[in-house]
Amino acid sequence: MSIHAAEAAKDDASYAAQEEAHGIEPRRVGDVVMEMKNITLRFGGVTAIKDISFDVREHEIRAIIGPNGAGKSSMLNVINGFYHPQEGEIWFRGEKRGPMRPHEIAHQGIARTFQNIALFKGMSTLDNIMTGRMTLMKSNFWQHTFWKGGAEREEVEHRRRVEEIIDFLEIQAIRKTPVGRLPYGLQKRVELGRALAAEPKLLLLDEPMAGMNVEEKEDMCRFILDVNDEFGTTICLIEHDMGVVMDIADRVVVLDYGRKIGDGTPDEVRSNQDVIDAYLGVSHD
Ligand SMILES: Nc1ncnc2c1ncn2[C@@H]1O[C@H](COP(=O)(O)OP(=O)(O)OP(=O)(O)O)[C@@H](O)[C@H]1O
């Protein structure tokens, strides 16, 4: 058995043990779907990410945490192709990824939400979520003109999937409302809907609870867990709210000053002295 396979088997055993201890059904966490290997990202003289490696396994909820400026957003931006690291390799679904632009990465099945909501404020909830289907649309302007029947059938199917998402996220009442008029928490939910509309294999969530009140956070947690559970979507999220992260993540990677200082289950990370120091602001020599 290779070292990698042995470590994976060990992880499997620890997942199973934790679940058994809590009397819950085993989760379907599977093989490695994404692997970041020795990633280094610099902006001029600033090293935002320094030689970081971690993996994401199928069906898991993987969190990236760390104090301000730790490199979390930079890492998410590397995963979805906004930033290109100077060093390191990214492997997705068994293949090494070359330099790609965000839309190509979206076509590979990676969707994301943003820290500052990025919706079309004047458009309705339904139309915003529909934009998430763009990467899946086969017909273009010419096909709409000359292949009317097929294009219409495709459109009906897209609308059906969007309506399913609207039901799933319990936002039927606001389906026609321009999103700019919605409270913050609901806008975040619509953004999640738009990302889900792309039927991602890997869903990246950039601070999904930021700026939310307690009730909105509880709702968002429930939807993230349901997406993971019911759709089997693999999720990688950045979040400042430690309580939320520890509650919903299967594994957590901790960054500080662009370096990885912890990686493991919430319990392992919670008891890691480097992580405790980083969050208490212990100075670095
Ligand atoms: N586009 C950029 N140009 C120059 N420096 C950048 C850029 N983006 C990030 N940085 C720097 O890289 C480092 C990591 O920033 P990053 O935003 O990734 O951290 P973060 O953990 O997401 O922080 P926060 O929690 O405050 O959002 C910081 O020193 C930041 O100033």
How would you sum up this structure, described in words?
The chain has helices at 3-21, 72-79, 102-107, 125-131, 141-146, 148-168, 184-197, 214-231, 242-248, 266-270, 273-280; strands at residues 32-43, 46-57, 61-65, 87-92, 95-96, 110-112, 202-206, 234-238, 251-256, 259-264. The chain is α/β, with parallel strands linked by helices and 285 residues long. It folds into two domains: 25-109 and 201-285, Rossmann fold (3-Layer(aba) Sandwich); 121-199, no CATH class. The strands form two sheets. Strands 6-7-8-3-9-10 form a six-stranded mixed β-sheet, with helices on both faces. Strands 2-1-4-5 form a four-stranded antiparallel β-sheet, covered by helices on one side. A hairpin with a 2-residue loop joins strand 1 and strand 2 (46-57). Helix 4 packs parallel to helix 7. Mean pLDDT is 85; it is low at 1-6. It binds adenosine-5'-triphosphate.
> How many helical elements?
11
CATH topology of the largest domain: Rossmann fold
Enumerate the spans where pLDDT stays under 50 for 5 or more consecutive residues.
1-6
Give the biggest beta sheet.
6 strands, mixed
The SSE order reads: HEEEHEEHEHHHHEHEHEEHH
InterPro entries: AAA+_ATPase (IPR003593), ABC_AA/LPS_Transport (IPR051120), ABC_transporter-like_ATP-bd (IPR003439), BCA_ABC_TP_C (IPR032823), P-loop_NTPase (IPR027417)
Pfam family, one: BCA_ABC_TP_C
Protein name: Amino acid/amide ABC transporter ATP-binding protein 1, HAAT family
Domain ABC transporter: 34-282
